[in-house]
Amino acid sequence: MNAPTLLERLAGYLPLLAHGAATTLLVSLVAIAAGFVLGAALLGLSRSRARLAAGAAAAYVSFFRGTPLLVQLLMLFYLPSAMGLELPPLAAAMLAMTLNSAAFQCEILRAGLASIPAGQIEAAASFGIARRQVFRHIELPQIARAVWPAVVSEAIDVVKNSAIVSVIAVADLARVGRQLVASTYRPLEVFMAVGVVYLVMTAAIFALGSWLGARMGGGRAGARRIVEQAAGGQP
Amino acid sequence: MSLHQRLGAALCAAAAVLACLAAAPARADQLAEIRKKQEIVIGTEAQFAPFEFIQDGKIVGYGPDLMNLILADLPDVKLKQLDLPFQGILPGLAARRFDFVITSVTITKERAAKFAFTVPIADATTALVKRKGDESIKASADIAGKTVGSQAGSAQLKALQEYSARLKADGKAPATIREYVSFDEAYADLAAGRLDAVAQSLANLATLAKTRGDVYEVLNAPIGPKTYFGWVGRQGEDSAALVKFFSDGIAKAAASGKLAELQQKWFGFTMDVPTDHVPEPAI
Fold first, then answer.
1. Residue B19: enclosing H or E segment and its boundaries?
2. What ipTM is given for this predicted complex?
3. Does residue A1 form part of some domain?
4. What is the predicted pLDDT for the residue at B19?
5. d(Cα A155, Cα A142) in Å, to the nearest integer?
6. Which of residues 6-35 of B touch A (CB under 8 A)?
């Protein structure tokens, strides 16, 4: 039998790589989605009038943005078991990545909110539009458009940052690459293949993000409609 | 600091915090707990062919085969095996992330002071591997003045350091030693020409040379004292029964000839391993 060619070997790596990529995607998507919700809640908290709540949100953001993700992962892996709690590695990885991304997404949303001139909201109020409607039809669409590119970029960062979750026993794409190197002793081609799979995933996120971003124009027309209604019919 | 040093420092810090937290009161016997919970959690670094590595998505090798043989005596207990980098294996055991370590850990003085080893499963004596066709290295002593790598925190690194010190004492130039997160990176750097040799156990090197004989060539002579691979549990009364369970299992496999059979299957040769006691570590 001839030694397998490069293509045959790469085909042999595929099932394991696909499995690792699925784990990477699962951890990343949970972190991006849950991180967004938590980030929005944090932003709400940090803008509240209660000093304690605002202070806690600020402390949270500075902790999770100011310490390495690696340290956060290790803490979430080792601390619960030392305290007698059981947190499976995959859950610990998702939790650490979520808590970390929430801090970044909170700041992204804060910047988006700050980009809306106060004059717009005052003008809407003078048209007699309810505060809730102002948020729904005037602020939200603009914030969404403003923050979307940064959110997509954060999503891509999360996928790439997830490459260190293997330190807490999660067999993600990067770990699978190491496992393959350990049995094939062919690091160059294995890590090239791993890099390509990461690139495919991040490119897909970017493409999906751009496609969705281009469909966010609806907000402007909606805002015009609500202003027209408030002004009493035809302009 | 390099990445693996930072990783190591972070793990050490985490382990130190946990050592304090884990100084808890007496615990129930681990083996009894495992039987009751019907689950055992094992820590493994599946990056160490042919001892333990991944094939078709499963952890396989000499270690897992032996483990399954022994765990057959606990038929109702479900196995949960975690794969993580070696630097996290012993800290994870100390932090009670797993019940037991089934990965090839060289029995050393330092480790034996903190953890409880089983009787040996294999010979861990260190040797060198060079690039195939490198005429400048004909014997182990030819690494004098050259650059040699090994895995950070490994006993093979320690053997290499002692060997290099002996070279120096003999009036030769010591070797420049580089430490890697895993042996795979050291092998890669050897192939790329950034290293002249890698120090690793002879048992692992045999598989390396079998798989990539086109690139690597093993110098078939030990560079350090005789050492052994064992499995590891925690010290203390609550873990004693569990460690003994695995030790007895290894001894039973040795007596029945099954151990030699598994060695033949995974290494292509058998090793002389004392399975009636844990040998006094030489390093």
1. helix B3-21
2. 0.78
3. no
4. 54
5. 20
6. 6-7, 10-11, 14-15, 17-18, 21-22
